[in-house]
What we know:
Blueprint: H1 2-29, E1 35-41, H2 48-55, E2 62-69, H3 75-81, E3 85-89, H4 97-105, E4 110-113, H5 122-133, E5 138-141, H6 154-165, E6 181-184, H7 185-191, H8 199-208, E7 213-217, H9 221-224, H10 238-255
Parallel strand pairs: 1-2, 1-4, 2-3, 5-7
Antiparallel strand pairs: 4-6, 5-6
Helix pairs in contact: 6-10, 8-10
Amino acid sequence: MRMRLHSSKRVSKDRHSLNDVRRRIEKAHHGVPIVSVIIPVMNERKTIGAIIREARRIHRSVEVLVVANGCTDGTSSIARRYGAKVLEYEKPLGHDVGRTLGAQVARGKVLLFLDGDIVISAKELRPFVDAVLSGTDVALNQYSGPIKRKQAHPVVLAKHVLNDMLSRSDLKGASMTAIPHALSRRALEILGTECLSVPPLALTMAVHSGLNVATVHVLQVGRINRKRTKRGSVDPLLNIIVSDHMQAIRWLMEQTNERNGCGDLYRKRNRVG
């Protein structure tokens, strides 16, 4: 009887210990979202509510992070009312810096990046999340921009050139400059957050690091994107985006050589006129 009692107590103790471990694990993971949606905004009161509403429908476990920079129109209050966590900065941060700041506090296994002026349905956003959950590290929008023109747009040309230099011509004009796109937690740990402020550089580093980069869904964001105010005939973001691509190309060449790892015999001299 003593032996049986002792054995029973030991089994009971083991069960309690196992339950304690389970409770600690559940507590450690309680509230940690699967998906973090990061939305940099500056004065987007007209669209931010609808964007957050769709973002919250993407997955049963999602956090929405709104990086409000230089907002003076009540965008932050609206975002909070719709259930987003708001990171608020008094002054404008500059193009794409909000992605870095949002990623620094994101807790999700998947990081999905949106813009604050384009409303996209949850149905159209889920393919990017699903791709990362299935093993893709960088899930890109297959959108390549307007390509059926006699003269290529400088931004579209820059995207194609960079992808070709990365030996990823299959990506065509896909880029981390365009939304939506998503990253895995693994990609974030390898790349860090700082490079996200320069999307072409982040893409270059991702390909160079051997991460799984793929186009997963096409969304014609060019058709639904709000037309930006131009100074004269110049798009205010054109120079910034082209400069970002030049920075990415420079980084790539520093990792290889001035010929991007190609020997001199690789050049097709018969094409030089």
